[in-house]
Write a structure and sequence with these properties.
Radius of gyration: 18 Å
Bound molecules: adenosine-5'-diphosphate
Order of helices and strands: EEEHEEHEHHHEHEHEEHHEE
Strand content: 25-35%
Largest sheet: 6 strands, mixed
Number of strands: 12
CATH superfamily: P-loop containing nucleotide triphosphate hydrolases
CATH topology: Rossmann fold
Shape: globular
Distance between the termini: 45 Å
Number of helices: 9
Number of domains: 1
Structural class: alpha/beta
């Protein structure tokens, strides 16, 4: 169980700010959905939390400890990332890729133990990629790659999970099973999950809280019904929208008006 705290975070690309003064807390047992238009800074936030991008100002704390002081190994024991699948190389097999998630847990000889193998089997089973085990990444579809990336992150067995548009490339059935699996893991293992998402109706259905990012700044943070209002969304996405309560669940249902 871990609490992720982002305090006054600023990230630049060269001179250009991509994130400014972002404050967010993700407690254990919560899915926090990060939404916002293209270019708002969602991927930048995920990448700066995962250590891929340097931070210009502010801090990221894990259980009160500044994550920038963590060694890469310690960081990988605490935070797993599901990046967008277009970043994948193709030479490894599916099983080798998922085993990479165990790297930070391996002993000094780097040889997987039966526990590591079991965790990899479990992660591949949960994401339905076990049948692809010996296939190379270059030889599987975008949706299959996306599930392999999720399997790798689950095999990493961390209290914090960051996901960058994880339902991209997935058909509807796999989208639902990914979100159902995440909910189950969050509830059972009290993971803290920060997930960039595009589909606002999926956000309404799966997120505990929602953070709306526009031009690198947080415009709203709160429950789905507090943040997913037509006023917030029309301003952020610059298009007319209607938001009504879902007839069965009561969560916000977002439709475009055109
Ligand atoms: P989102 O994920 O919300 O679509 P990004 O985080 O990808 O947004 O981008 C935020 C801003 O940073 C955009 O203005 C984008 O053009 C810029 N940006 C993203 N990646 C880079 C990069 N590698 N170099 C320079 N600017 C970048």
């Amino acid at each position: 169980m871990s609490v992720l705290k982002i305090r006054d975070l600023t990230v630049h690309y060269g001179d250009k700010p991509a994130l400014q003064g972002v404050d967010l807390t993700v407690p254990p047992g919560e899915i926090l959905a990060l939404i916002g238009p293209n270019g708002a800074g969602k991927s930048t936030l995920i990448r700066s939390l995962s250590g891929v991008l340097p931070i210009r100002g502010g801090s990221v704390l894990l259980d009160g400890e500044d994550i920038s002081t963590f060694t890469p190994k310690r960081r990988a024991q605490h935070v797993a990332v599901v990046p967008q699948s277009r970043q994948l190389g193709g030479a490894f097999t599916v099983r080798q890729t998922v085993m990479l998630g165990r790297t930070a847990h391996l002993g000094w000889l780097g040889k997987p133990t039966p526990k590591d193998e079991a965790k990899v089997d479990w992660a591949m089973e949960k994401t339905s990629v076990h049948a692809l085990s010996e296939r190379r990444l270059a030889e599987i579809s975008g949706g299959e790659q996306q599930r392999v990336l999720l399997a790798r992150a689950l095999a990493q067995d961390t209290p914090v999970l960051l996901l960058d548009e994880p339902t991209n490339h997935l058909d509807l059935g796999y989208q639902v099973s990914l979100l159902t699996l995440l909910r189950k893991l969050v509830d059972e293992q009290e993971l803290a999950v920060l997930m960039a998402m595009h589909d606002l109706n999926q956000v309404a259905g799966c997120a505990d809280r929602v953070a709306l990012l526009v031009n690198g700044q947080l415009k709203a943070v709160g429950s789905p019904s507090e943040v997913l209002t037509s006023a917030n969304l029309e301003e952020a996405y610059n298009t007319p929208l209607d938001v009504v309560p879902h007839p069965k669940t009561g969560v916000p249902l977002i439709t475009t008006l055109s």
